[in-house]
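Morning!

This is the sequence you dropped in the shared folder:
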Amino acid sequence: MSDRRSEESSGDEPSSSSISDEVWEQFLQDTERDIRKSAPKEPSARAREVSERLKGQQGQPEGWRTGPAWQEMNGRAARRRRTWAVIGVPLAIAVAVVAMRPSLIPGDPFGSSAGTDTAATQLPAETTTPTAPPSAVAPDTPTLAHPFAGSPALRWADGAAGIVLPKATALGAIPKGRVELALQQTRKLLVDANLNPDVMAGGTPSAALSVLDPKQPGVLDNLKTSLRSPSKTHDPLFLFSRFDPKDVKPAGKIVKVRGRITFAKGKYQGVAVHADYTFVYPVVRAAATDGSTEVTRTIVRRVIDTELSDPTRYRVTPGRLTLLRYDEDAGNTACGIDDGYLHPRFPSQAPTGSAAPTGPSVDPYDRSRDIGKEEACGTVSRT
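The structure's back. Tokens below.
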């Protein structure tokens, strides 16, 4: 990794000699106070491990006009991932329900119209933080014809149509055009990372990587390492939704999406964008030997903070995003597998993974709760 301080100031950067000692000292004190306030008081063992490794990689502390560094992201509880597996109890409940309602058998062999997706009215776009989880829906079993049956996501938007950008406006001296660019670049990141079929099948998220600033220390290198050689500390699932095509394949072409995106003036004199979205992926086994068409769903929620920083004040690439935070919360994926793929569990399938769920049961559709506070392997109340 190159030494950021060895780079010579470009002609559009103000000379550091124009900053008085008093202003410099105040900047350092304010920055240190902000980082202390935002850092978790008791980081997890995994966060401490990553922090120590990254400290070893960074030869010098964050400098003036260099923009946010990777270790600051780690201190702000970035790159947190919580997985929520499915336990065997829902299977017993499903068997009892099917006994009373045969139409819920996958494939609907009796010709019933139960669980018809087209009957649902789409919800209006989310504009504020929800105050409660979605209401319970009829426990219909998903099928290839109706992969979102029995899910609150049935009424959510389809794919990229669910990522609705707010109307861009100027932020003081920051023109409307820069705000629009920050929003569009963040949307491009979200769409490619979570909705591109090639990326979902394990391909390279080229469009998502292309909007990130190569001058942000360590970010692109770490992401590319995670894609090339996934591991516990270099996990592409932190930012990208990926399934092993030898394991599962999409149950149809639709991924349901719900969330919101906002903007404000950023810490680095640019446009800060906050995105909070949940993606629902219906899948089937890639090669079921028994001819089964059983459908299950994995639910992934992502909270991402980006900033289009001011290139006249910071050593950044114009038009590229600085990635400040990314948290992930995955529901219905095996625990303890670090191969860079989500591993959905089917109701009729035995548990997989090396780590048994020990955390609490949560509703993966509940967008009113915070994520990224701690790491855990728990269970989901519904899929």
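Headline: Confidence is low (pLDDT under 50) at residues 1-18, 35-67, 69-80, 86-116.

More detail when I'm at my desk.
O.
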